[in-house]
Amino acid sequence: MALYGGIEAGGTKFVCAVGTGPEDVRREVRFATGTPAESIARSVEFFQEAQADLGPLAAVGIASFGPIDPDPASATFGYVTTTPKPGWANTDFVGQVRRALGVPVGFDTDVNVAALGEHRWGAAQGLNTFIYLTVGTGIGGGAMVNGKLVHGLMHPEMGHIRIPHDRTADPFAGCCSYHGDCLEGLACGPAIAARWGVSATELGPEHPAWDLEADYLANGLVNLMLPVSPQRIVMGGGVMEQEHLFPRIRRRVQELLNGYIQAEAIVHGIDAYIVPPALGNRSGALGAIALAELAAS
Ligand code: ADP
Ligand code: ZN
C-alpha cells in the first residue's frame, strides 16, 4: 500500500504526517512555524527520515495558510503569495519540497484541504457540495462543489464576507486589517477577545458574547448557503470548541432563513447539517494525506 506525506502549514504551527489515513498515521511531528527556509527544511528532513525507515512516499500534500497560488497552470503555482506573515511572501513552497523529495506534490489552502479530509474520511463523506469553515485566529472556508474543491480566480476567502453589524448593539469596530467589520473582523477568536477584554477561552457559556457570536456566524453561514447550496456545513477551529455554539447557530440559521429553504436538512435535520469535523483537529493533516493521494494518481 502506497505511503503518503502531508504537511499542514499553519501561521503558528506546522504538522507533518506520514501514513495512509486516520487509522494509519505512522509518524507525525509538530513544530512552531519559523522562516520558510527553516520550516521547509525541517519538513523535508522529517519525510527523508520517514522514507529511510518506512519506505518511499508516493506523494506529498501541502495544506497551506495563504493567500497561495493553487493554479497548476500559473508561473507561481505552489507559492505562498501575498501573505503578511513576515518572510513568507513569494515563497516557492511546492518547488522546494518537490526538488528535495522528488515526488509529486499537491497544494491547496488549509481550509480546502480540511474540507477534502472531511470528505475522504469524516463528516462530509458521500457529499459532492459542502463547506468547511474554521473559526479560530481568523475565519476561513473551503468548499467542494460538484465533487471538486473550489479555486477559480484564486481561492475562496469566506471569512471576509460582509454581514449586518448593528453598531448600537455592538459598538466594536471589528479587527480585520483590510475591512474592519467583515465576518472575520467581528467573529474570529481575537475579535471576541478584543470586544470583551478577555480571551474567548475564558468566557463561560452563559456570557452574552456567545449569542452575539452565534448571530454573526449564522449570518455568515446563510450568506454562504444561499449562493453555494451546500449539502452540509462543517465548522471547526478553536472557537467552535465551544460546543454550545452549535445549537445556537443552528437555531439562528433557521430564524434568518425564515422558512425560505424548505429542505428536510434545514427544517428538521439541521443537527446533522451544521456539524463539527468528524476528524476533530486532524482534518488538515489528514486532508493533506488525501491531497497527496490525489497528487499521486
Ligand atoms: P489557528 O486559527 O491559529 O489555527 P485555532 O483554530 O485554535 O488556531 O484558533 C485560535 C483562536 O481560537 C484563538 O483566538 C483562541 O482564543 C480561540 N480558541 C481556542 N480554543 C478555544 C476555546 N476552547 N473556546 C473559545 N475559543 C477558543
Ligand atoms: Zn476582512
Structural description of this entry:
The chain is globular. The protein has helices spanning 36-54, 93-101, 110-121, 183-187, 189-196, 209-228, 245-257, 264-267, 283-296; strands spanning 3-9, 13-21, 24-32, 57-64, 79-80, 91-92, 105-109, 130-135, 139-145, 148-149, 233-236, 274-275. It folds into two domains: 3-113 and 281-296, ATPase, nucleotide binding domain (Nucleotidyltransferase, domain 5); 123-276, ATPase, nucleotide binding domain (Nucleotidyltransferase, domain 5), CATH 3.30.420. With 297 residues, the protein is of the alpha/beta class. Helix 1 packs parallel to helix 2 (93-101), helix 3 packs across helix 9 and helix 6 (209-228) packs across helix 7 (245-257). The mean pLDDT is 97. It is built from nine helices and twelve strands. Helix content is 35%, strand content 21%. It has a five-stranded mixed β-sheet with strand order 3-2-1-4-7, sandwiched between helices. Strand 8 (130-135) and strand 9 (139-145) form a beta hairpin. Zinc ion (ZN) binds at residues 160, 176, 178-179, 182, 184-185.
